Amino acid sequence: MSCPLMKPGMVPPPPGEESQSVVLPPGWQSYLSPQGRRYYVNTTTNETTWERPSGSGIPASPGTHRSPLPPTVNGYHASGTPAHPPETAHMSVRKSAADPQNLGSSSPGKKQSKENTITINCVTFPHPDTMPEQQLLKPTEWSYCDYFWADKKDPQGNGNVAGFELLLQKQLKGKQMQKEMSEFIRERIKIEEEYAKNLAKLSQNSLAAQEEGSLGEAWAQVKKSLADEAEVHLKFSAKLHSEVEKPLMNFRENFKKDMKKCDHHIADLRKQLASRYAAVEKARKALTERQRDLEMKTQQLEIKLSNKTEEDIKKARRKSTQAGDDLMRCVDLYNQAQSKWFEEMVTTTLELERLEVERVEMIRQHLCQYTQLRHETDMFNQSTVEPVDQLLRKVDPAKDRELWVREHKTGNIRPVDMEI
């Protein structure tokens, strides 16, 4: 996992520029393109322009471009697309000139730029020793798009795991956790269903059915309350299934398939990047060989060690120039591939971040629904015993005795003593 110092292609604006001493209108920031040209970005509307915005926030000339991409940071949009044409700053290339002594030479700026970059897995990064700390795309948010550019050593092996692969693994793990939560609720539903079944069965039991009087009425209500409670728990289990378990199980049914497509897309971009990097290295070697051949022929001609004609020199020079052009073309294609990869990485990581927030919020809402159903069930359970409480308060042993005696009395004549 990389730190934000290792984002590809980002160029910080040097201090001391005019735009840093003059306050820009609210919402505008200025940056330098790799070519050194200053441009301005409206971080609210995502507009970019070469012209300095006026006090009203509108550029003085109609050079404003409305970009569908997010705001730029250090010359790159947050989605990764350069706000200006990419420059081959990380490759030392120079076309052959007419002067043989200049053949193969590179401008000091190019050499310095190459020395200020490092290449990791075919991706060109600023060298951490020469590059000041880069701005985060989403400061203070610990966003995925800022911290997963490089690879991380696999703790279970000797290989490396790409930062993007770590994000995919987290997404798939989240899907698995969601599935396991659904299975947990399913087990909870089974317990509720079994409990309701047992309560209903127990409510039909004939034990103590012959109890009489007000106490007998209270006892009958106790048994009826079990049947009512069983109905409450059946409804609870049904709502758990429809409002908690099923949504958890069905949320993003095609999620794994979508993540697989996403993984293949980023992997294809990395393969393209590696292929074009290899083409650059091949073209660089070819240019070196052409330059060496031209230099050797030129020296031989100067010291008259060869019968090579001027035409041969021109031919070698044309080949050297063509090799330089080929290298520049390969570098251009490489930069385009890297910019595309960078853009897709930022866009996709931000999407994965959004999906994770959405998943967590979805689970939170359904667990809140679970607790709400629990509270309702407890309330309904309480209502089933309230009639029992009312009847128990009315139990009157004296009244029960009176009623029983009236129904079962055998007579009120008492025995008398026997006379002799």
UniProtKB/TrEMBL annotation:
Residues 270-311 form a coiled coil. InterPro entries: AH/BAR_dom_sf, F_BAR_dom, FCH_dom, GAS7_F-BAR, WW_dom, WW_dom_sf. Pfam families: FCH, WW, WW_FCH_linker. Residues 1-29, 42-115 are annotated as: Disordered. SUPFAM superfamilies: BAR/IMD domain-like, WW domain. It comes from the Eukaryota. The keyword Coiled coil applies. GO terms for biological process: clathrin coat assembly; clathrin-dependent endocytosis; neuron projection morphogenesis. Its main location: cytoplasm. PROSITE patterns: F_BAR (PS51741), WW_DOMAIN_1 (PS01159), WW_DOMAIN_2 (PS50020). It is found in: Cytoplasm. Residues 140-400 form the F-BAR domain. Residues 102-115 have a biased composition (Polar residues). Keywords: Coiled coil, Cytoplasm, Developmental protein, Differentiation, Neurogenesis, Phosphoprotein. One of its GO terms (cellular component) is clathrin-coated pit. Residues 22-55 form the WW domain. PANTHER family: GROWTH ARREST-SPECIFIC PROTEIN 7, PROLINE-SERINE-THREONINE PHOSPHATASE INTERACTING PROTEIN 1. May play a role in promoting maturation and morphological differentiation of cerebellar neurons. This is Growth arrest-specific protein 7.
